[in-house]
Amino acid sequence: MKKLSGFRSISFIFVPVLILFILGTVSSCMKILNLQIPDGVYVVGEWNNWVPTESDKMTISTSEDAFVFELPVASITFNPSRSGNEFLIGYYKVIYKQGGVTKVSSAIPVWKENLGSDTKLTIYATPTAMVNGLAVGVGDSEKMKTAQKNWSIGGEINSWDLTQGVMTWDDTNEVFVYEVKNFVGQKKEYKYKLSRTDNEWKPWEMNYDGKKYDAGMGQDASFSLPKDGTYDLKFTYNPKFSILAVTYTEK
Amino acid sequence: MCKIFFVSLLILIIASNNLFALQTSFSTNFSVAYDFSAENVGTSFSMEFRMNPSALGKDFDFSASLNGSNLESARLTFTIEGAKVNLYKNTGFIKASDPLVLYKYDSGKDGVEIQTSHFKVVFSDVVMYADMKIPFMNTNLLFGKRDEKFDTALYGFLKVSGLNVNYEFVLQDVKNFDIKNSVGMVSVAEGNYNWGVRYLLAGATNTSLALSPQYISNQNIVNAWYKFSSQPAFNTYVNTNFCFEKFSEDVLKNTEVGMDINYGGAFVNLKKTGFADVTGAMPTEWGKFNVSLGTTFSFMNFSGKFAYSFGKPAHNVVNTIGEVYYVELGRSFGNINLFAKYQKLIGYYEEKDFFFGELKFTGFQNADFAIQIGNGDFAGDNPFKPVVAFKINAWW
Predict the structure, then answer these.
(1) By CB distance 3.0 to 4.6 Å, which of A48, B110, B200, B344 could disulfide with B325?
(2) How much of chain B, in percent, has pLDDT values that exceed 90?
């Protein structure tokens, strides 16, 4: 009995401590000792073991209206693509931390051959558009290049034929565009996906469903039409922030 | 095919025994969950109906589980001439008895197990093995076949001057002898296991036991422990692994030293893994370490548990330095049970909140009903999402 009462007294010491812990993070070792990385937007990858450091912090660019970071291409670890050794693919992620809120993008692939002679990769991020676990809100200069292959839309609207869905660059709006005129909509939802122009969908890692790159079989973007009818469709892809969208005009 | 075999065998055995008891229990569960985290509320349903027939006679017993019309798993045990025979259908029964556990298969398999006081034989499609006692010696010989490979193990137990000595020697793929496929182990412990040392020597740094849960991290693995006192109870331990070529480097990198203290429902655990990565006085420069403390408590008729840990890695899903707060509270109001747990994880750059609450009604004769909020798996990457689930379990 004596031991039990001793134990109870220990419990009663712990309860106020517990309440203190629950009520706030006043007693947090991480905060008291200032062990957390300062708020900011960071780029992570193999070069920093996927853990942000002060030197991986993105800076705000007023001209881009976004956070920007120039990553030396030499810092990226490239490995052969799953779709063939002729493509080398590296990855990075962007981490946004503000107070207790953290958003970590999905892994974003970089296609080495498409970088050509570039020695730096420019990475862009808009934290307001970022969604935890997705690529949305993050993009880079490699996505803007079409020297090796264009970007294409493949989907139910063109029998998944990427050669029919080649996108063109709209310099004013800084987006890739693919338009389909007089499309006869006969159902509510249509599936599609973004890829480099290659009917074998290579490199597979670049396929994008509007949420994550490396979108595999069955991972598709989709758009809905309000009713059956004839439409002009406009697909856009913003490579700086990985935003894939469809707009339509009923005819 | 297997189902027919089982049923025929069961009928045969039942026919040969006049006395038997047949019993069947039924259970069903239904759950519906609403996920409010997305723009459109997601809904998921699940329903299961399970039948568990069992029969018990003088020399046999049988149990099975049918999920809908599928035979999910079954076990039939009977005795012939002093040998116990177990027939299994989709059951996790493969587990060798040697200290290193040469064969273990957790998922369900079909097979036969025959056991006497001197040997055990197991037949299955993944492995077949025989484990037999060597007469007049406290030693067993295990011989197994997996695919086209044959393995053997010799293991035993000795009592030497009051000390418990366990030993085992394994040679995998005997036909293609390679020192890489051999493992030896010896452990010496005090009679009540209050202290002990275990040493494992593998043939190579990349030796692995194909179907064993024993992970061989290096060529040499040493574990030592010392327990003392009971109120509070202390358990101290040192674990290390190394290869002969890089002895000092490996020991510095891989050694794990720890102490666990338990007093009633309270505990403190201290652990440091590796010393090569200690670079300074700040916790961020300590490399891998963990400090945990906690206690059970009762407060205003609630019983609960509180725990705190600080270290690197902070959690299963957070590899950086960080801390984890955990609290759980439960209370019964007659047939109504209330339970809630909360976890906050503060990492180097990320913070995650976990919450799970359950209101369970158990006042029904053959059923219970629960309303749950959140995901209860706090060890995984399951930060709180507003998911509400309704669950009904019934049995008769």
Answers:
(1) B344
(2) 69
